[in-house]
């Protein structure tokens, strides 16, 4: 240890004041402060992934394998049951299942945003949004591996590319991460207050796979779709990406639903963070 | 200019009002007769009660008091982790938190990786961290163990790593919670030297501890807490004497009550 390093002269940082009053835009400030700590949440997110596959020989190849396996089995069974064009159904299922996996991971992981980082929250004052960025990054990295399977299937399946596919791209690349971020803040805050919410989301998670057009196609559901299933917002997240990509048409209703949900989640999540800002550390 | 100011700071914890389990929380015994009283859960706990003080560069302060007196809460409030319920805390200077060893560490990650993570959490850039890695590694004396996941470490080894990481970037204010005790004598010596150097260099040390010898060595002033109240703030020896007196009184008082109960 060299003595010189300890006597470095640095400019003193500005004084910080902690008081019961908080700024009216504390939540937004937190998001900005958190976004700037990209080095930290990137490191934490990659650490999460490395940790999950640490003592396995093929490591993250498992993400690819398990996705491919699930897809194959679902395809083998449902293409027979549903009596559909095989190639078309494979493209449909692969895209839908890929999106579904991402959405359900964001919903379930979103609940754990803060409770899984208790040690960090109680050990040092950090922007809360760091943990939301961490969660989103981790799930995007996983999705980037799985998307390879989907890309191969779409290319080999002979998909015709139209400019409308750009809508899919916009929604997947821009709106999905934004929504994932909002969800992880909103669900994270709710779960910190009440763990019941976490179990609720976990239970609903499996149900929503069947309530969303992943395995089945809306056109074939008739009245059930028109009267009930159409009100499931997750369905529109699926349709708004899948339809322009595979069929080249734009499902405007779904696109608007996605935009509306994004705005609503944005407001709700920021309101939740604003309300809970000074309480999270006591609740956790 | 480094300083730490508390102005009439109070912190209240609201306990979860778990309505389903309310029955279990009711007092099962009123304390009348032979059996000791059993308590129901309080709705709020006042962990800090109207605490005011100001400390400046070069101050080495010990926080003394029984378990649950509010020492750890005060440290966490100073670090900005617990926002005050009322009052105001003003901090100038970079803060290093040395609370529980495991806080803010990834048990599955290697020692080296944790050095990086802890630097990033402190808001340092990758370059700044890279510059310090070797120095931190040397200070821990953990050698090849640094390449292993830290879940394989003993408490003492974790302590070395955490201490080296937290103090590497020359913090101005060091907040420590009953800590160096776990290290071996040689490391305690080394850590003390580093702390002294950091504080002498325009810093502040706040150390919550029950170890009187450690307090005498590391600190010159002390605060005495009871039930969240700052009762006394003076030099270490005076406070230790005050504490002894208070404890003797409590012990005598307690025995007296018990005798009374038996004769009643």
Please describe what this structure looks like:
The complex is a heterodimer of chains A (284) and B (264). Chain A is mainly alpha-helical and 284 residues long. Helix content of chain A is 71%, strand content 1%. Chain A starts with 15 loop residues before the first strand and ends with a helix. With 264 residues, chain B is of the alpha/beta class. Chain B folds into two domains: 1-12 and 47-94 and 172-255, 3-Layer(aba) Sandwich (Rossmann fold); 107-169, no CATH class. In chain B, the strands form two sheets. Chain B has a six-stranded mixed sheet, with helices on both faces. In chain B, strands 2-1-4 form a three-stranded antiparallel sheet, covered by helices on one side. In chain B, helix 3 crosses helix 4 (126-140) and helix 4 crosses helix 5 (155-167). Chain B is globular, with a radius of gyration of 21 Å. The model of chain B has no long low-confidence stretch (mean pLDDT 85). Classes of the chains: A mainly alpha (284), B alpha/beta (264). The A-B interface holds A 1-3, 5-8, 10, 12-20, 22, 37, 39-40, 43-44, 47, 51, 54, 119-126, 278, 281-282 and B 1-3, 13-14, 76-77, 79-94, 97, 99-100, 102-106, 108-109, 113, 116-117, 120-123, 125-126, 132, 135, 138-139, 170, 172, 194, 197-198, 201. Strand 1 of chain A pairs antiparallel with strand 4 of chain B.
């Amino acid at each position: 240890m060299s003595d010189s390093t300890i006597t470095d002269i640095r400019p003193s940082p500005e004084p910080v004041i902690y008081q019961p009053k908080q700024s009216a835009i504390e939540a937004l400030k937190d998001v900005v402060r958190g976004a700037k700590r990209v080095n930290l949440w990137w490191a934490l997110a990659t650490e999460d992934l490395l940790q999950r596959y640490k003592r396995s020989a093929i490591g993250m190849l498992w993400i690819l394998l398990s996705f491919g396996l699930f897809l194959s089995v679902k395809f083998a069974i449902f293409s027979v049951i549903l009596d559909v064009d095989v190639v078309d159904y494979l493209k449909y299922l692969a895209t839908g299942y890929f999106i579904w996996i991402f959405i359900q991971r964001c919903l379930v992981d979103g609940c754990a945003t803060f409770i899984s980082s208790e040690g960090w929250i109680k050990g040092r004052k950090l922007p809360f949004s760091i943990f939301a960025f961490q969660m989103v990054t981790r799930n995007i990295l996983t999705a980037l591996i799985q998307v390879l399977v989907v890309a191969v299937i779409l290319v080999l399946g002979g998909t015709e590319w139209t400019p409308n596919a750009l809508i899919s791209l916009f929604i997947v690349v821009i709106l999905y991460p934004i929504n994932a971020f909002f969800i992880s803040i909103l669900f994270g805050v709710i779960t910190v207050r009440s763990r019941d919410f976490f179990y609720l989301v976990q239970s609903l998670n499996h149900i929503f796979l069947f309530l969303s057009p992943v395995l089945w196609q809306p056109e074939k559901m008739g009245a059930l779709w028109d009267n009930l299933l159409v009100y499931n917002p997750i369905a529109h997240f699926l349709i708004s990406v899948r339809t322009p990509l595979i069929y080249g048409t734009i499902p405007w209703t779904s696109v608007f639903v996605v935009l509306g949900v994004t705005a609503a989640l944005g407001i709700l999540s920021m309101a939740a963070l604003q309300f809970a800002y000074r309480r999270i550390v006591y609740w956790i | 200019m480094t300083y730490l100011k508390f102005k009439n700071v109070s912190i209240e914890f609201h306990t979860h009002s778990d309505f389903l389990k309310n029955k279990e929380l009711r007092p099962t015994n009123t304390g009348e007769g032979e059996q000791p009283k059993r308590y129901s859960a309080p709705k709020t706990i006042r962990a800090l009660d109207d605490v005011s003080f100001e400390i400046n560069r070069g101050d080495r302060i010990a926080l003394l008091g029984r378990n649950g007196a509010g020492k750890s809460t005060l440290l966490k409030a100073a670090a900005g982790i617990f926002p005050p319920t009322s009052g105001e805390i003003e901090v100038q200077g970079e803060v290093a938190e040395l609370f529980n060893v495991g806080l803010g560490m990834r048990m599955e990650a290697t020692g080296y990786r944790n050095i990086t993570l802890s630097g990033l959490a402190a808001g340092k850039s990758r370059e700044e961290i890279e510059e310090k890695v070797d120095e931190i590694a040397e200070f821990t004396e953990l050698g090849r163990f640094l390449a292993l996941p830290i879940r394989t470490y003993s408490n003492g080894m974790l302590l070395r790593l955490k201490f080296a990481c937290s103090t590497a970037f020359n913090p101005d204010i060091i907040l420590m919670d009953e800590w160096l005790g776990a290290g071996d004598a040689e490391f305690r010596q080394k850590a003390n030297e580093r702390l002294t150097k950091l504080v002498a260099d325009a810093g502040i040390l706040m150390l919550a501890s029950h170890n009187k010898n450690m307090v005498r060595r590391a600190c010159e002033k002390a605060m005495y807490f009871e039930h969240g109240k700052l009762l006394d703030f003076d030099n270490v020896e005076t406070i230790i004497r005050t504490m002894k007196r208070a404890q003797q009184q409590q012990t005598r008082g307690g025995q007296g009550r018990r005798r009374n109960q038996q004769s009643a």
